[in-house]
Design brief:
288 residues; alpha+beta; four-stranded antiparallel beta sheet; binds zinc ion
Length: 288
């Protein structure tokens, strides 16, 4: 599933081609893409609009349109956005934006979980406030902020990182990679982090995401960039999908477990498992 680095890679590729382009026609071939809004309604909202900017929030790709509206797209499991100049329809084509002049933006999706919605710009902040937390590469993510988000949470660190309302944009791959960089065990209760753990985790998140960006994303399943090409992050995974291989830091065997229903890879030797902080008994040791 595309995560922040994959969506950002697509955004950076699309930005020069789409900014200032006019949508001459929009075709939605799959009603699931726009559900519960009817495809015709979305086609009408897009047709004739000019794309003012291409942005990203978390794992969402945003086409900011003139006339104060935004097309927000989420690729989910197998969605791809392809910039096409050849005029050939790829498999699993679900929607087409014909651009004035030259080119088409194609949305393909084998498993059809991808989604798009048109939002009024003055409702964008409200829309994302209920879906996304802090942007990890914006500079807003600090160790202190991570500790604040994690405070009192018993959920394992892996689940904490997958929750988009805390830190936005992290999925299964980059959660594993960030936790390995931070030397923290994925099953540690999130609220057990001390300030220095939060600092290391913050650095681990940023470094893992930046590695993903540098390599054009990870193509272990259906992910392709807007040119239909694979990223190479999978060649640089420290632990993700590497069960049985030696840990690049300490040499111990990397293990696989399942956390929150997701395959989770970690080094049992150098990723420290934090203990839940003992709860202070009422009245004990706190008198005065
Ligand atoms: Zn290790």
């Amino acid at each position: 599933m595309p995560e922040l680095p994959e969506v950002e890679t697509i955004r950076q590729q699309l930005e020069p081609a789409l900014t200032g382009a006019r949508i001459a026609a929009a075709r939605v071939m799959d009603e699931r893409w726009t559900r519960p809004v009817a495809p015709a309604e979305v086609e009408e909202a897009l047709t004739g609009r000019t794309i003012a900017a291409v942005e990203r929030r978390g794992k969402y790709l945003l086409l900011r349109l003139d006339a104060g509206r935004t097309l927000a797209m989420h690729l989910r499991m197998t969605g791809n956005l392809l910039l096409d100049h050849a005029g050939l329809d790829p498999p699993y084509l679900r929607a087409v934006l014909e651009l004035s002049g030259d080119g088409r933006l194609l949305f393909t999706d084998a498993r059809r979980f991808g989604h798009a919605t048109v939002i009024d710009d003055d409702e964008l902040d409200t829309y994302f406030a209920g879906r996304l937390g802090v942007e990890p590469l914006s500079g807003a993510l600090t160790g202190e902020e991570l500790c604040r988000l994690a405070a009192g949470r018993r959920a394992p660190l892996k689940s904490f990182l997958l929750n988009q309302l805390g830190v936005a944009g992290i999925g299964n791959i980059y959660a594993d990679e960030a936790l390995h960089r931070a030397a923290l065990h994925p099953l540690s209760p999130a609220g057990s982090m001390k300030p220095d753990d939060c600092e290391r985790l913050r650095d681990g998140i940023v470094q893992a995401l930046e590695a993903g960006l540098r390599t054009g994303g990870a193509s272990i399943d259906d992910y392709r960039d807007s040119r239909g090409e694979q990223g190479t992050m999978q060649e640089e995974f420290l632990v993700h999908t590497r069960a049985g291989e030696p840990c690049p830091r300490c040499g111990a065997e990397i293990r696989r477990t399942v956390v929150a229903g997701r395959s989770t890879y970690f080094c049992p030797s150098c990723q420290r498992r934090l203990r839940r902080r003992p709860r202070r008994r009422a009245g004990a040791g706190t008198s005065g």
